Amino acid sequence: MTAPKKLFIKTYGCQMNVYDSERMAEAMGAEGYVATEVVEEADLVLLNTCHIREKAAEKVYSDLGRLKPLKAARPGLMIGVAGCVAQAEGAEILRRMPIVDLVVGSQSYHRLPAMARAAAAGEKPVDTEFPPEDKFDHLPDRPKAALRPTAFLTVQEGCDKFCAFCVVPYTRGAEVSRPAARILAEARGLVAKGVREITLLGQNVNAYHGADGDGERSLAGLVRDLARIDGLARIRYTTSHPNDMSDDLIAAHGEVDKLMPYLHLPVQSGSDRILKAMNRRHTAEGYLRLIERIRAARPDIMLSGDFIVGFPGETEADFAATMDLVRAVGYGMAYSFRYSPRPGTPAAGRAPVPDEVADARLQTLQALITDQQRAAQAAMVGREVGVLFEKPGRMPGQMVGKSDYLHAVHVTTDATPGTIARVRITASAPNSLAGEICAG
Ligand code: SAH
Ligand code: SF4
Ligand code: F3S
Question: How much of the chain exceeds pLDDT 90, in percent?
Fold first, then answer.
């Protein structure tokens, strides 16, 4: 018997890429490949890439450059580029990096096994189509070994919003929702294998409108259906757009116990002028009113967001409006990025804000966000929260898990991964909390 072939996958970018990497590993598992974390022993190296900002996209090429000596030393080694850079650049990647053997776009993963066979036979297959068949229908069932107590589950993919800065509508294509029955079956399968928490994924997850018999299911309906699965303890979803936050979904936050009190709701800017230039189709005031309604339904909800600073045309007054909005909301955490012009997007040709101005604003915003994050964590001390344990911590006898509010929590306990316990928070460190199991 020959030794199984080994697959090394490096994942860049968002949670959907993490999910996709798992699905690709499963598809290649059916071909006899086993996963390895040691790149030097791999027979196939897959880079599952991200195109969202220039730095992310360029990282792929520097990583490919570092693979050159390995490829020279191991002539049978195949190198594949998957994900959003693959989708955006296609065959151009082969021209720039001849060591690459195959390029597979984000909608074609079910074709990866056949492409790997073609590559092994000396071809250089490239597939960046948006094929008419649904890749999810052609991917194998999800085996047990790869699973942890928490799992991602893609329910919606692509985006029709076309924010002026963003490549996602081009790399992931038009918005498509998976049928509700498929999602529920996948969720039941995950729970049967020990998963306790599912995070529903979509670039515009709250725009979900999947087929359900003769009708359609909204995200709120899907959440309510999932909540009826015995053994599934926690439901989350990400990422949402403010304009798709329906009354029903807001109500679900107050009514469905399994829906966790955490919501990632990017707003990008606090200036209406910039929001308009970004083609966001909402105002700062509209966003703040929405937050009020969400908090009325679920007062303890933890909010997170995304911000872009230095978008073309951003003035000091626009940036001040962003700072005001962040102060008004009070985020549990938030991500902020310097604007990065992306090829093919409407904003790419507009006059940029000088680098040093954008950098200074980013630092100012990040300092405010860090303060809010610390304050939100400090406010947890003394409180009792649910914690789902995921893995052993760094100290002996310690487990790490996530609180209902998505904080990492360290606890000394002999509880096993997958256990949910009531924990009293005793201390707050910069990026995590410490706690002890509540008596009784
Ligand atoms: N709705 C998507 C957003 C993906 S991009 C999702 O599923 O997560 C994540 C964040 O990256 C965006 O919210 C935005 O803040 C940031 N971003 C997108 N394009 C960018 C660009 N050109 N430059 C800087 N940041 C960008
Ligand atoms: Fe990009 Fe905007 Fe769509 Fe989010 S909503 S994926 S930022 S275009
Ligand atoms: Fe990046 Fe594609 Fe996700 S561009 S953020 S990997 S959808």
Answer: 93
